[in-house]
Each structure stands twice: as structure tokens, then as C-alpha cells.
């Protein structure tokens, strides 16, 4: 066994859930590289992490662009080594009733939340096959499972992620690579703070545990799935939603 740290690439790593995932993986001994789209934010984030005792790598990618992601992967390989844990966490919302949704709201959410998964997985797959080991963990959503008023775009992209998970899991099952989905419920991050307050409160009232989730509620599942010992779990979709959706 090499003593070299495993490389974990977390897209959207500087965001709410992303930061929690990066910290949990770093604590578990991974060299973490956070993917980012906003350089100023990422540099400040990296500094903050340093002050908190975390040595995080960062790498730019426009996750909607195949070429930009390929370039980021090459950059990560050159500076750190090949990625064996890929966490597809980058995602946006652009909510609106379909009646009012424009094509750009549709396109931006599908490309950021779903095209991104194709782009990053393609970038990492050959290296994982070479190492005969890999973990791809797709951060989907409760709303990809149950649907949500105002989220035809987001629900479609998030459901699509799990379809991707199941297909790729079958392709790689004999190659030491697992592919799984985590479906978070409503997690207390900037993303849900964008929801109008009265609507947000009515959503909170629908969560049996009586609170929004925390990034750590998701991050601990990522660490669990990334572990070498989790090799029998593949093609799964694991909920962490405070009981809001049981199925
Ligand atoms: N079921 C059925 N109909 C509903 C409804 C519901 N739950 N909620 C609202 N409606 C109806 C309203 O009654 C209204 O109908 P009429 O026009 O016939 O009166 C219509 O839908 C429009 O409702 P709004 O007035 O709320 O419309 P709006 O345009 O002002 O707002 C919206 C639309 C922006 C989508 C707003 O409803 C909203 O923000 N909803 C919450 C969406 C949400 O949960 N987003 C999650 C973001 S966080 C995230 O995505 C992370 C994650 O993974 C969980």
C-alpha cells in the first residue's frame, strides 16, 4: 500500500454542502481539491480553510464545458495525482413555475447540474480504470425523487443524475469503481436561503426531524461511500432528508 494520500475532487467544493464535504474528506485523510468557478471566492475560501487547519487544493473548471473540465482534470493530475474519489456536488437552482420559466433557466440548470456529471466522470474514468479503484458520488436531491413545484429544471437534472449513476455503476461494477447517489433534503445553506421566507418555513414544517439538515449530515455519507470498505454499495441512492420523503 502506498502511503500517498488519495485525491478527492469535489466540484462546487467552495459552496455550502461542498465545504462540509471537503472538510470531512480532509479529516478522513484525503488530499482534497475543490473545484470552483469564482476565483476570488475560491482564493478567500482556501485561505479560510487554511486558518481552520485544512490544506485544500483548488482548481478552476466551468463544469458545463467538457474542455474546461478536461483541463481541470489535467491540472489536478499534474499538481496532485490522479483522482480516485470524484464528488459531483456542483449545482444551481433557477426556480420558477414552468409557465414562467425561460429557456435559459432550463438550460443553465441542466448543464450545470447534469452535463457536469458527464464531463467530470469522463475526465476521471480512464484513470480510475487504470488504478482499478474509484468512487463516484453524485449529490442529487430529494426534489429529483419527489418533484417540486417550481423546479421542473432542477428535478429533471437531479433525477437524471441518478439514472446516470445506475447505468455507470453497472458498467464499472467489475472494475473496482462504485457509483452512488446521495439525495439530500433541505440543507441550511445559501441555496435554501434564496427561497421566500414563508415558503421556506412551510417546507421546514414538512420535515419530521423538525430542522433543516447541515452540510455535515451529507458529508459523513460521502466519507462512508468513499471508503474502500464500501465496495458492495453501488448504484444506490441514499437519502438524507430528515424523513421528509420516504419511499
Ligand atoms: N402545490 C401546488 N401548487 C402550488 C404549490 C404546491 N406546493 N405551491 C404553489 N402552488 C401554486 C400557487 O397556488 C399558485 O397557483 P395560482 O397561480 O393558480 O394561484 C402558483 O403555484 C404559483 O405560486 P407562487 O405564487 O408561489 O408563484 P411564484 O412565481 O411567486 O413562485 C416559486 C414560484 C419561485 C417556484 C416559489 O413557489 C418557490 O420558491 N417555491 C419553492 C421551490 C423550492 O422548494 N425550491 C427548492 C430550492 S432549494 C433546493 O433545490 C435544494 C434541494 O435540493 C432541496
From TrEMBL:
Record keywords, A-Z: Oxidoreductase
Coiled coil feature spans: none
Short name of any one Pfam family annotated for the protein: adh_short
Keyword Oxidoreductase tagged: yes
Residue ranges of domain Ketoreductase in the record: 6-185
InterPro entries attached to this UniProt entry: Acetoacetyl-CoA_reductase (IPR011283), KR_dom (IPR057326), NAD(P)-bd_dom_sf (IPR036291), Sc_DH/Rdtase_CS (IPR020904), SDR (IPR050259), SDR_fam (IPR002347)
Top-level division of the source organism's lineage: Bacteria
DNA repair found in the keyword field: no
A GO molecular-function annotation: acetoacetyl-CoA reductase activity
The protein's Enzyme Commission number: 1.1.1.36
UniProt cross-references to SUPFAM superfamilies, sorted A to Z: NAD(P)-binding Rossmann-fold domains
PANTHER family, alphabetized: 3-OXOACYL-(ACYL-CARRIER-PROTEIN) REDUCTASE, 3-OXOACYL-[ACYL-CARRIER-PROTEIN] REDUCTASE FABG
Family classification: Belongs to the short-chain dehydrogenases/reductases (SDR) family.
The protein's name: Acetoacetyl-CoA reductase
Species for this entry: Marinospirillum alkalitolerans
Amino acid at each position: 500500500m502506498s502511503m500517498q494520500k488519495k485525491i478527492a475532487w469535489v466540484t462546487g467544493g467552495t459552496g455550502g454542502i461542498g465545504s462540509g464535504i471537503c472538510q470531512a474528506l480532509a479529516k478522513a485523510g484525503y488530499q482534497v481539491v475543490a473545484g470552483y468557478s469564482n476565483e476570488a471566492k475560491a482564493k478567500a475560501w482556501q485561505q479560510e480553510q487554511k486558518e481552520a487547519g485544512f490544506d485544500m487544493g483548488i482548481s478552476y473548471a466551468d463544469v458545463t464545458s467538457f474542455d474546461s473540465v478536461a483541463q481541470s482534470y489535467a491540472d489536478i493530475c499534474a499538481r496532485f495525482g490522479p483522482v480516485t474519489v470524484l464528488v459531483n456536488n456542483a449545482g444551481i437552482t433557477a426556480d420558477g413555475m414552468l409557465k414562467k420559466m425561460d429557456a435559459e433557466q432550463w438550460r443553465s440548470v441542466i448543464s450545470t447540474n447534469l452535463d457536469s456529471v458527464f464531463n467530470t466522470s469522463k475526465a476521471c474514468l480512464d484513470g480510475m480504470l487504470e488504478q482499478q479503484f474509484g468512487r463516484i458520488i453524485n449529490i442529487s436531491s430529494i426534489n429529483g425523487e419527489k418533484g417540486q413545484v417550481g423546479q421542473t429544471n432542477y428535478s429533471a437534472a437531479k433525477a437524471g443524475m441518478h439514472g446516470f449513476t445506475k447505468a455507470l455503476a453497472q458498467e464499472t461494477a467489475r472494475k473496482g469503481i462504485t457509483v452512488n447517489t446521495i439525495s439530500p433534503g433541505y440543507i441550511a445553506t445559501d441555496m435554501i436561503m434564496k427561497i421566500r421566507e414563508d415558503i421556506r418555513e412551510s417546507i421546514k414544517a414538512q420535515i419530521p426531524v423538525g430542522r433543516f439538515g447541515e452540510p455535515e449530515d451529507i458529508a459523513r455519507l460521502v466519507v462512508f461511500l468513499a471508503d474502500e470498505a464500501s465496495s458492495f454499495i453501488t448504484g444506490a441512492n441514499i437519502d438524507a432528508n430528515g424523513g421528509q420523503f420516504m419511499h
